[in-house]
Design a protein that fits this description.
Number of helices: 4
Helix content: 25-40%
Largest sheet: 6 strands, mixed
Radius of gyration: 14 Å
Structural class: alpha+beta
């Protein structure tokens, strides 16, 4: 498979989970260029804090954030159209410094564009402790 082909159904879950994990990694969150490649121009997020994030706000905020390690479980992905995928999973933010651990349910819409997946929408819903 070349980089310009959409993944088959078998590869879809693994590829999208790897992209979601990358967006939760310190290396990608600190790198504006890598973030810009993963987030579509029209990207919007309804954060678990209740904050509405645009692409511009996300690109400005993430590189300077106090990073907290995160993990993903219960990951599911499915195609809604040939070029649109929907993912859901549980995210665990691990305690770091003054920030306590927290858990949230996550969902994202990914669009296949220019030979790669880009996130167009993301939502985090807190799971009460």
């Amino acid at each position: 498979m070349t980089g310009l082909e959409r993944p088959n159904a078998t590869d879809l879950v693994a590829q999208l989970q790897a992209l979601e994990a990358a967006l939760q990694s310190q290396a990608v969150r600190a790198d504006s260029a890598r973030l810009a490649m993963l987030l579509a121009d029209e990207f919007v997020e309804f954060g678990s804090s209740g904050t509405l994030w645009t692409r511009a706000a996300t690109l400005a905020a993430l590189p300077g954030e106090d990073f907290c390690p995160r993990s993903i479980s219960d990951f599911h992905a499915r195609l809604l159209a040939d070029d649109v995928a929907f993912v859901t999973y549980r995210s665990q933010r691990h305690a770091s410094g003054a920030l306590p651990p927290s858990a949230s349910l996550r969902s994202s819409l990914w669009k296949w564009r220019d030979g790669r997946w880009q996130m167009t929408f993301h939502q985090g819903t807190p799971i009460p402790a």
